[in-house]
Amino acid sequence: MINAPDQWPQAELVVDYNAVAHNVRLLRARVRDAAVMAVVKADGYGHGAVETARAALGAGARELGVATVAEAMQLRRAGITAPILCWLNISTSDFRPAIEAGVELGVSSVAQLRSVVEAAGEFVPIVSLKVDTGLNRSGASAREFPGLLAELHDYVVAGRVRFRAIFSHLAHADDPQHPENDAQRDRFLEAIATAKMHGLEPELVHLANSAATLTRPDLAFDMVRSGIAVYGLSPVPELGNFGLRPAMTLRARVAMVKHVSAGEGVSYGHEWSAPHDTMVALIPLGYADGVFRSLGGRIDVWIGGRRRPAVGRICMDQFVVDLGPDETGVAEGDEAVLFGPGDNGEPTAQEWADLLGTISYEVVTSPRGRVVRTGRR
Ligand SMILES: *Cc1c(COP(=O)(O)O)cnc(C)c1O
Questions:
Q1: pLDDT tens digits, one per residue of 280-300
Q2: How far does the centroid of ligand 1 lie from the alpha carbon of residue 153, in Å?
Q3: Is the predicted pLDDT of residue 6 greater than 70, yes or no?
């Protein structure tokens, strides 16, 4: 959907799905023979899971990755038939619809494997093993892994499970030369060898996230699972952006423009007072919409072709920007870009992340509330 320039809503998150396609093509070129799985969990990192999935598949991503069964089912209901893996399941997850829809289930424990098989009935579930090689989050630990393999082997022999993949997740991928990356690769190779000893031959194995995709091609194996890079944000900002194009722009309309006299305080607590007579603009987005309150007085907003400083506290619904004493060119309804790709000089999600002491992942998954998402192709 493309809104006419004068029709876009008061607060809008614009996603450029051409950028998503560009990023997927770039990732494919980097990994050569390995396939690309586009990770679209958490509603496509805030970019829209279904729309991102379509753009990524159109650009040559072979598979999709999500955390939960519900996320996988949302994609299937939208008519997406590509392979989907979901990996954050618990024994009480509602596996049946996912099994019927041919969703590949990532299993980390014997208990999970048993509930998948029980839920399957006459269907044959597609199961992949998530093995813990050092992250110590989900995934079967080295101690549990042989028992899991033995039980899976029995199910496979009985024709009750189709075994697809072995996969694992890195702890230090954003630090490419960290020795733990190599240690995890070695443990991963060992786990694959152990599976083969148990008579289980995976169709494919995968380990790399975005950071490893871009910095450790030697860890690409048969497929890479790329999330943040699909959205055009760098998983390792210190190393640059690798030619990725950020897909998300958060913008609002200026709600009003008014004069503030020298010495007058602005917004709750009057944390900022006008040093001289000035014009301010009101932006109708606040912390309930994902504009972090701790960014009060610290961000710039792109209005009328320039960066303008936010002043005073960010409130639930709104905050104020100082336009300067001579500003007469900004009017109610004008575009105010909070963050975007940065091509014109507007702030970026990475800048917000740096100010917040967090990662861009948290910034792009935060817009909510009154923000309306629209797509651009
Ligand atoms: C989220 C996730 C990814 C994608 O990570 P990025 O850093 O966004 O590329 C890959 N694999 C697993 C298991 C994940 O949970």
A1: 999 999 999 999 999 999 999
A2: 27
A3: no
**Which residue's CA is the nearest one to ligand 1's atom 4?**
227
Best residue among 52, 130, 225, 358 to mutate for probing ligand 1's pocket (most ligand atoms within 8 Å of CB) is 225
Distance, CA 2 to ligand 1 centroid (Å)?
30
Task: Please give the number of the atom of ligand 1 that sits closest to the Cα of 167.
Answer: 13
Helix, strand, coil percentages (3-state) for the chain, rounded to 5, are 35, 25, 40
Report the Cα–Cα distance between both ends of the chain, in Å, rounded: 9
Cα-Cα-Cα-Cα dihedral of 337, 339, 341, 345, to 10°? 70
Q: Write out pLDDT tens, residues 18-30.
A: 999 999 999 999 9
Check: pTM over 0.85? Answer yes or no.
Answer: yes
| Torsion sign (Cα): 229, 231, 236, 238 | positive
Q: Which of 161, 101, 151, 170 is nearest to 128 (CA)?
A: 161
**C-alpha to C-alpha distances, 195 to 96, 115, 198, 201, nearest whole angstrom:** 26, 21, 5, 7
Residue 342 makes CB contacts below 8 A (sequence gap 6+) with 246, 348, 351
Q: What is the DSSP string of 155-166?
A: HHHTTS-EEEEE
In the three-class reduction of DSSP (H, G, I as helix; E, B as strand; rest coil), residue 297 is classed as coil
Are the C-beta atoms of 319 and 239 separated by less than 8 Å?
no
Three-state secondary structure of 230-264: HHCCCCCHHHCCCCCCCCEEEEEECCEEEEECCCC
Number of other CB atoms surrounding residue 296 within 10 Å? 22
Quick count: other Cβ atoms within 10 Å of Cβ 157? 11
Element counts in the chain: helices (H) and strands (E): 11, 19
Distance CA(153)–CA(82), nearest Å, equals 26
Q: What crossing angle do the helices spanning 145-157 and 110-120 adopt, rounded to 10°?
A: 20
- The pair of three-digit structure tokens given for residue 216, joined into one six-digit string: 């450790």
